[in-house]
Amino acid sequence: MMKKFKEWLALSLCAGLLAACGGGGGNPGAVNPGGGGGTTTPVVQTPTIALALVNSGGTASNALTSVAPLTARATVKDKDGKVVPNALVTFASNSAPGGSPLVVFSPSAGTTLTDANGVATVTMRPASLVVSGAGTVTASSTVGGTNVSADANYSVGATAITLSPLRLSPATIGAYGSSVIAVDVLTGTTKYTEQQMTVNFTSACVTAGKATLAATAPTSNGTAQVVFRDQGCGNNDVVTATLNSGAATPATASATLTVASPSAASVQFVGAAPVSQSIVIKGEGGFGRTETATLTFKVVDIFGKPLAAQQVNFSKAAGVDVTINKASDSTDANGEVITTVNSGSTPTSFRITATLAANPAVSTISDSIVVTTGKPVQQAFSLSVGSPNVEGWTFDSGPVTPATTVSILVADQAGNPVPDGLPVVFQSNLASVGSSSKGACNTVNGGCSVDFRTQNPRTALPNLPVTPCNSGSGPGVSSDSPRTGLATICASTTDGTNTLFAKTGIFLSGSFADNVWFSDTASPTAVRLSGAEFDLGTVGANDSRVFTLQLNDINNNPMPAGTRVDISNPVNAAATGVSPATVQGVFPGAGIDSNTVRVGSSHVVTVGSVQPKPCLTALNATFNVTITTPRNNVTSYPFKLRFSCP
Fold this sequence. Notes:
Layout: H1 2-20, E1 48-54, E2 63-64, E3 70-77, E4 88-93, E5 103-106, E6 111-113, E7 119-126, E8 133-143, E9 146-156, E10 162-163, E11 167-169, E12 172-173, E13 178-187, E14 190-191, E15 198-203, H2 204-207, E16 211-212, E17 216-218, E18 223-230, E19 237-243, E20 251-259, E21 264-273, E22 278-280, E23 292-301, E24 311-316, E25 322-324, E26 328-330, E27 336-343, E28 348-350, E29 352-356, E30 363-365, E31 369-372, E32 376-385, E33 389-391, E34 404-412, E35 423-428, E36 432-433, E37 440-442, E38 447-453, E39 486-494, E40 499-509, E41 515-518, E42 525-527, E43 534-539, E44 545-552, E45 564-571, E46 574-579, E47 601-608, E48 619-628, E49 634-643
Parallel strand pairs: 2-9, 12-20, 22-31, 33-40, 43-49
Antiparallel strand pairs: 1-3, 3-7, 4-6, 4-8, 5-7, 8-9, 10-13, 11-13, 13-14, 13-18, 15-17, 15-19, 16-18, 19-20, 21-23, 23-27, 24-26, 24-29, 25-27, 28-31, 29-30, 32-34, 34-38, 35-37, 35-39, 36-38, 39-40, 41-42, 41-44, 44-47, 45-48, 46-47, 48-49
C-alpha cells in the first residue's frame, strides 16, 4: 500500500509541475513528438545478460586453440540495471558438422553461479587437438522469472602436437641395467601443458620378453617418463614413443639404447634321451632300444637366463668306447645345444663334458649313460610259479581267482633287466594259462606274470601243444612229462634271432589223501582208510610216539599246498603236534614221469602219553591223523598205540 501511495504522489506532483509550467490540455500520458501538449508512454525495463570472450591475458578475443583457451564472462543484471549475484548461468555451444562438439567447458557441465559482481565465468577449450571451425557460445539465465540470454561467436584452430627427441639417461647400460627414458609433448617448440596426455612406449627387446618398459605413461608438466630395465637383451635396442593426438599421423620419436651382452655364468645339463639313460652295444639293437644317446645342455647367464649363439665343445674321458657325433655346436634361442653319442662294442658307462668355447673354465658334465646289450639271453630267462601244487584235479579254480600265477624274469648279457615291453608267450598241456586277451605278457622292469587256472583238459596228449620246450633238438628241449596230474608250462620269447624258452611243472593235486604211507621202516607201509586202526606198537608209559607219514593224492602227487595235517580225537593220548603242520610247495623233480613214484610231502607226527606217575596200568590209545585241503576236503586215518606200564 505504501508503494502505491508513493507512486500516486509522484504522478500528482508531476502533473502539478506541468500545469505550473503552462502545460495543460491533452492526455498527460501521451507523447507529443512535436513538443506540444499531449501524453507520454513509460519505458518498461527488463533483466539483461552480457557475454564477452577474453584470452588468458584478459584481452577480448574470439580465437580459441588448445594452447590458448578462452574465458566466457557473462554479466547478469536485473531490470533496474543492478548486478545479480548467485544467479545460475548455463553456457552452451553448437556442435561441428556431424554432431561432434567443438569445445568443452570447465566446469564440464557448463553451469556456474555469478559472483558478487554478477559475473559468471567458464573456461572454453577445443574438444580435441585436431578440431577446427567456428561456433557460437550462448550464456543463459533466469532473473525474476524472465529468461535472458546472450551469444558470442568464436573460432577454433587445430593444434599441431609433436614429440621431442627421446632423452636416455644413461644411453649405454650394462647387462641387466636400467635407463630412464623421457620425452616432451610439444606445440611448436613449447611444451604442451594445457592437459595431460598419454604416451605409448615400445621396443624390440620388450616385445621379445628380454626387457621391461611401461607400455604407457601420462605426461606431467608436458613430460612423459618411463624406466627401461634389461632382462638379458644383449643387443642395441630402439625405443619408440608414440602419441596419438587424433591427427591422421601419430607423433613419434625414437632413440637407440646401447645394452651390453650378459656373460655366460654356467653350462647346465638338461637331460638325455632315452630317458632311461641306457643304450645298447653297437649292433645289438633290441626291442625299444637304441644305440644312440641324445644329450642336451643349456648355457645361462648370472640371472639364469638362457644365452643364444654360445659355442659349446663336447668331450669324453680317454679310453671310453663311445663316439661323440658332434664335437661342437652353438646354443639356440633357448640357450640349448645338443649332441649325440653312439655306443661302441663293449658294455660301459660314460659321461660327456660340455665346455664353453669362449671361457673353458665354464663347463659341466652329463649324468652317467649306460651301455648294455639290452637283448634277452637264455641264461637269464627265469621261470617260476607261485604254487607248484594246487587243488585242481577235480575242482576248477574259476574265471576270477586263479589257482596260482606263473612269472618270468628276463635279463640281458650284463645281468640288467631287459627293456619294458618284451613279449613272453606261455603254453600249457593241462588246464589253462594266460588271459582271455592273450596267453602272454609284456615285461615291465624285466618281468611279468600270467594266471594259471585249473580246468579241463586234465589228461595230456604227448607233447601237445607243440612248444619250443618240447619240439626240435636244441639244447634244453625235452618231452613233456607224461605223469598224470602234472601240467607242463612252457614260456618263450625271442632275441630277434634265437628263441629263448624255459619250462616248469604244476601239480593238479587231488582233494583227498588217498595214498598215505608209514615211512619209519625201510619198506614204507600203506596206511588204510578203513578197517582196523594202523598199529603203532607199544611205547613206554611216559614216552612219546614219533613217526613219519608221507601224504599223496590219488595220483601219488603231493596234496595241495596249504593242506593242514592235524591229530584229532585222541583217547588216552596227548596230541603233541605235527611238523610241518601244513603241506608246503612241492616242485616236480627228475625221475617222476611214472605215477608209481610217490612225490608227496612227509610229516612228523608226535603223540604223547597221559599216564599218571607212577604208572598203574598199561593204556591203549587211539587217535586220528586228519588231512584237510584248502577247499575243506577231509581225509582221516585211524591209529592205535599202547603205553606199557613196567
